[in-house]
Write a structure and sequence with these properties.
The protein has about 270 residues and is an alpha/beta fold. The chain folds into two domains: about 5-85 and about 195-265, Rossmann fold (3-Layer(aba) Sandwich); about 90-190, Hypothetical Protein, Haloacid Dehalogenase-like Hydrolase, Chain: A, domain 2 (2-Layer Sandwich), CATH 3.30.1240. The chain is about 35% helix and about 20% strand. It has nine helices and 13 strands. The protein has helices at about 10-15, 25-35, 50-60, 90-100, 160-170, 195-205, 225-230, 240-245, 255-265, and strands at about 5-10, 40-45, 65, 70-75, 80-85, 105-110, 115, 130-135, 150-155, 175-180, 185-190, 215, 230-235. It has a seven-stranded mixed β-sheet. It has a six-stranded mixed β-sheet with strand order 8-7-6-9-11-10. The longest helix has 14 residues, at about 90-100. This is HAD hydrolase family protein.
Length: about 270
């Protein structure tokens, strides 16, 4: 392919190593691409506050599509520039239906700045304690006046693939369901909110076509963007559904899979 105008990359399992860091090789490849005129857009399930920590450690700047497309974030300015919230009534409807389909679920709400969880929700992230706020019951999740960016459902019994199938069968098109590999974790957004929908809108504003985008990802929540981009690569460590759906593969995140492709595209003339 010709040199892309925009590089869209997932973070966990794609750009980042297992320890959450960027390798020196990856940093160098990204800088080479930017120096050549390409824009790098991070497209992640992570909320903006995670990008703040990453930017402080790596110098990462630019635009990020966060929370599976629900937020657009200016990393340098630390500002949300676009938000696509999940309606409260929809969140309550989905939680009720999923509780019936998969008993024992715990629920949490992501606002982009804070994370609210009820007692049955047990998947808390290390290093995130200052942003995690426990509430007394499921009902209390719906009392906050802060818009819901994502509803999260966690099960100690069902794997994420099973939860995804149960959600699609029981709630239909009420919301957008996906997962990013978290054990027993289902990620729920407003209907139509995906990584691809938000990135395509950003590209349209910049006069960039899908054919001018190269994308990288590893999990089901990356599939919309991998199918939309003109050229897409599944990581060597990707979920089986991603490996089967995406014809181009690179090496794993531990083996600098993104950097290897960017070097091929941007090193030398």
């Amino acid at each position: 392919m010709q040199r892309p105008r925009l590089i869209a990359t997932d973070l966990d399992g794609t750009l980042l190593r297992r320890d959450g860091t960027l390798s020196a090789r990856t940093v160098r490849a990204l800088r080479t691409a930017v120096d050549a005129g390409a824009e790098v857009v991070v497209v992640t399930a992570r909320p903006p506050r995670f990008l703040d920590v990453l930017a402080a450690a790596t110098g990462l700047t630019g635009t990020a599509v966060c929370s599976n497309g629900a937020l657009v974030y200016d990393i340098a300015a630390r500002t949300v520039t676009r938000s696509l919230a999940l309606p409260l009534s929809t969140a309550r409807e989905v939680a009720t239906a999923l509780s019936a389909a998969a008993p024992g679920l715990g629920f949490a709400v992501e606002t982009g700045h804070t994370f609210l969880y009820e007692p049955s929700y047990r998947l808390l992230l290390s290093g995130n304690a200052r942003s995690e706020l426990a509430v007394a019951s499921l009902t209390d999740l719906w009392l906050s006046d802060v818009p819901i960016v994502q509803l999260l459902a966690h099960s100690v019994r069902f794997e994420a693939d099973m939860l995804l199938a149960l959600a699609e069968n029981s709630v239909g098109g009420a919301a957008q369901f996906t997962h990013s590999g978290g054990r027993g974790l289902l990620e729920i957004s407003a209907p139509g909110v995906t990584k691809a929908a938000t990135l395509s809108a950003l590209c349209a504003e910049r006069g960039i076509t899908a054919q001018e985008v190269v994308a990288f990802g590893d999990m089901p929540n990356d599939l919309t963007i991998l199918r939309w981009a003109g050229t897409a690569y599944a990581m060597g460590n990707a979920h089986p559904s991603v490996l089967s759906a995406v014809p181009h593969h690179t090496t794993s995140n531990e083996d600098d899979g993104v950097a290897r492709i960017l070097e091929r595209l941007f090193d030398g003339d």
